Amino acid sequence: PLPYAHSERLVDLSHTLALVGVTSVDQSDATYLYYRRANHVFTDVGAYQTTAATLGRISGTGNGDRSGAERVTAARISANINAVLGASPLLGRAFREEEDHPGAPPVVMIGQNLWKRKYAGDRAIIGRSVEVDGVAREVVGIMPASFSFPARGTEVWLPVRIDPANTKSAIFDYRAVARLRAGVTPAGAAADLQPLLPRVPEVYAGRLTADAIEAIKMRTVVRPLRDVIIGDVGRALWAVLAAVGFVLLIACANVANLFLVRAEGRRQELAVRRALGAGLGAITGEFLSEGFILATVGGALGISIAAIGVRALRSLAIGVNIPRLDEVGVDGTAFGVAAGITLLAGLLVSALPAIRSVRSAVSPVLNDGGRGATAGRAHNRAKHVLIVAQVALALVLLSGAGLMARSFARLRSAQPGFAASTAFTFRIALADAQYSAPGDAARLLTRALDNIASLPGVSVGAATKLPLVAEARRDTSVFIEDHPIPKGGMPNVHQVSYASPGYFRALGIPLLEGRTFEAPDAEHPRLDVIVTRALAEKYWSGAHAIGKRVRMMPAGPWFTIIGVTGDVRGTSLSEPPDETVFVPLVSPGANPGEPLWTPHDIAFVVRSAGGSAQMMQRVENVVRTLDPTIPVYAARPMTEIVAQAAARTYFTLMLLGIASVMALVLGAVGIYGVISYVVSLRTREMAIRMALGARPADVRRMVSLQAVALAALGITLGLAGAVAMTRFIASLLYDVSPTDPLTLGISAALLLGIALAASWLPAGRAAGVDPALALRD
Length: 777
Hints:
The protein has 777 residues and is α+β, with helices and mostly antiparallel strands. Helix content is 46%, strand content 18%. The strands form 3 sheets. A 6-stranded mixed barrel has the order 3-4-9-6-8-7. It has a 6-stranded mixed barrel with strand order 14-15-20-17-19-18. A 4-stranded antiparallel sheet has the order 13-21-12-22. The protein is elongated. The chain starts with 9 loop residues before the first strand and ends with a helix.
């Protein structure tokens, strides 16, 4: 559960556009305002946006701030978010409604960790002003460390300040969270909201019209907030849980086999005890108590190892995008579940030999005495069934790990569209208050790029969006001049990134056609754009895109395509390349008459043959020389970004690999144990065979073939199970079929080889029997 009161009633509100296949569209200010005021299914609805902020010093004090400017994860939230979530500040208060309107005094809430780290935990900070993006804002509240809404690491909250009198109904850049009324389901809430959607244009006029809503088949979607936060990682976690379950079943089968072996060795003892008056309850209780003791000791050891192992796995998962990973640990709930499963497993593995012992007739065992030459088929059938089950489960698990391994290898070989080696990146953020005049930001960025480029052996570029980095994604409506939008239709949405002329060379993105941007002109920006091959193929397949025109706003200026680059992966190596439009870093305003615009949060890419650590320090000094208040953050090699793009697949593969190795070891031990026991029971039979002329090689072959036959039956059943089960991890695979014959074949051959190896030692022991000694025994 999420760490909020009655979190099962918290839901996320979004839309789908069925006509164009878009599955997730957020809220516009108009849809949010109308849903909030007209719905009948929520106690309240809140709006928010994720962003970043630059923190400066506390006004009026010289000792409250222990560092300079710092870039932190932030969010803009409506004043009622705290009430919707049921979260209270640690100190101070939440935002008031009157502070959530345009023109209200600037306020801010900060997180407990930031408060302690940057402001030394000074309680007197409440009521003081802190510089946020160059604006002095009064600190009204400190949120507890457990509150990280809407994303992990959020440390600053600002009012979202939606203006009901000036809405932009067709710009969907707000997220919405709501609390369901008691008894209302997400499906019921969606049914209540859908009739409201076409009425939004009646109250909030704009480019979103009722005809457009119907034309694009816009529908409301209500999902539990927990599912939205977890995202698609749930599939990987379920796959890992299934693997752990298979290992548990294999272990249970193994231990059950050992119990059966012990019971076979005690058949005569148990028969004598029953003949002397021992009740069935006493016999059964002895087996169950043994199972309970072994399960308790093993479970206690396992939980202790798990507590250490989880911490180790969390440290290995740095950079892996698994939501709420920092909350994972062996807590009371995990301990209780593990203890319950442990005791249940102990009961199950000891029940089978107990049942077989009490059901066996006493007289035949006593009459048989020591005269039996070999064990009967019935006595071995249960052990053989367990062996077959172990092999089948191990094959399913090994096949899944093999598919993930092949998928990871394919993912690592996928081309990101740029050259990551010898390049590193960092971001800077310009405060709006300090760079508000037209041309200020453009001049600062131009000087920074020129000064960095003057360093020996360096090429540099800048852009708002780097490949394989999802945080800075900017999906925007793009209008194509020779592809007019049908009446009532909506423009296509593409990735738009602002880039400098040297960006493509610094990142190693190939130019396939045309040219790159010219040096930026802060006074007279050019109306040029560059597009990726994917976008050019979408609209002008087989023709030249050079000279075509696009624009990002209905009334904005037309930009001419001057170049086509190679395809670049947008947010994931496993996703198709983005259809991207690159706009000059210095661009004219979106509408006629607006001043030129330059982004204030920029990623720099520097390519240098020298060591990146030393060069990074020199580059930081260049930037700070221009403006010491500019935060330089998110510095890392581009190779790290590429590695993180495959980190989740690698982490899942590692967990499945651990489970697969355990399954193989347990399977080998199980086969070895049972075959060794069967051979010990057949010692006299082997002696007779060899006395009658059988060679040691014949005896070894007979024993090994028995193990191989059991393994082959298990592999046959396991292949059927693998074909069925691996389909559940199909969504986790990249460029690999869930029924890949090579992976299934290698897995089967490996298990067959392990079965043969596990039987080799017992077979050698059987072949080395001295017939005379065995017959005398």
